[in-house]
Amino acid sequence: MKYLLLLLLPAIIACKNPWNKSEDSPADFAIQNTEDGKVLLRLKPQVGEKSTMQMKVELKPMGMLPMNTTIIADLNMRVVSSTDSAALFHIDFQRMQMNATILGAKINYDSQGDNSNIPAEIKNQIEPFLAKKFSMEMDTLARVTKLEIDQSNSIGSNIDLNALFIPLPENEVGTGDSWTTKQDVQSVQNAELIYTIDRISATEVLVKVNQSESETSKISGQYLLDRKTGFTKDGIIEIQTNQGGQNIQLKITVDTLNSIK
Fold this sequence. Notes:
By secondary structure, the chain is mainly β. 10% of the residues lie in helices and 51% in strands.
């Protein structure tokens, strides 16, 4: 009996831990199970799906004088067309907030509030940005293939919407599996990032993010993906880097506030 229990113990543990294997999802979900129990990560939203997302960027230069800045952007993403290989999103920025401490002076801006005391230089940078219409095309691996602002092609624009998604692997993956990409992450150029599946459920996939060893920067975080669409439910990236001899901490948080499918 003792030896029988030892033989059955791994199976008993596996049954008690629902994260040990992928759970089946409905047939219309973008992220599906494969025959060997792994998942195929894909971004496949349907036409008409809408999401209200919030991106928060916290910048903290580590110097003698505090120059901390927090920017919060609320945006609507709507799927206007979709094929087997790509989806087209229209993006509208609904609200922009900024809280900054620069050389001891505090500046607070809210596009939906009273900004009569805000310097004109700041308002002149933010308000035209809010009025712009964004069009972004992404393939099923969540790679931006085209970005237009007011119908003007600007794929090289410094407006970084990549933080809303993570690049997905071409091959199937299971818990503990990883894939590596090289990409620009805010001010860090050509960073080598390792994405690792932390856990899989019937409705979500949690992915951990870490940077390969680097002498100039450190990047870590995680993203929670919705299995129905491949959309980001929430995510966080923390960056430590050095620019011009100054150490900088940068934290980016992404949250889906509302989703209509």
